[in-house]
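During data preparation, we tokenized the protein backbone, and the record follows.
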Amino acid sequence: MLRRDASRPLSALPVLLVLLAGSLSAVALLGPLGTGTIAYRYSPTMLNQARGLDAFALLVVVPWALLAALQCRRGSRVGPLLALAPAGFAAYMLVQYVVGPEYLARDGNAERAFPLFALTFSCSAAILALAWSRAVSPPVSDRQRRHRGVGLLLLAAFVLAGMYLANGFLSALTDFPEFVESRAGTTEYDEHPTAYWLVAFLDLAVVVPLTVATGVGLLRGRAWARTAFYGVVGWFALVPPSVAAMAVVMVARDDPAADSGKAVVFVVAGLVFLAAAARLFRGLADPRVWEEPSVPAPRVG
């Protein structure tokens, strides 16, 4: 029931997904979590975050990519929808690996891993393009479509308000000296300001607009938004939990910028996102999900 038309083979996607899984594993095992062959030009806090990120990639993202590869190899309609998440995760993180290091201010050799980073990013971009072109999303009722659209708009508002506006981001834009002075103790910003601005740029220039666009598209009944919904949900199922993993490692290693309260919040939020995505994607295995929703007959009289 979950097989695609044989005239549209998915042979390239499984290969690319396996390659992505292998390259993400290599990045993790060669970094500070593993052999330390890749010495990022990071502050101690950023190195702890890299350990958490790499651990999450190995334990969650790599298996997810391999599962998507298996589903694509079998010709399942679920495969391309699953493939969007690890590819989006990798593209988002690889930009930070390349642009984030303080190349002139800190010791390291991260530039030697540039070919590996470029390969991983290119692979993720190719997967996104191929998966999007091959993805078929199941039909949804008008009620489901509206609920999903509103949910994504609320999610975008949470990222914008909860992660940035509530943390003095406007002050950073309008009164930068006051913004720096208001940060009590040692913070991630003090340790590595480049990473702060890079993540803020990716979130506010890419993630939030795409989430809003998908939510509005769902509310307007656009077919493309039904597919994009799975990519957005997959991204939130992987990236926020990876942030939780970073926070946990920082607390475990007594990082001066660690915040146990925030770590608990991140872990709870990450588990909620993962559970919601697991339920969504697991539901795609039910053949009934792919049937057109029945339309009630009009009442007469």
Notes: The mean pLDDT is 88. The two ends are 40 Å apart (CA to CA). The longest helix spans residues 44-73.
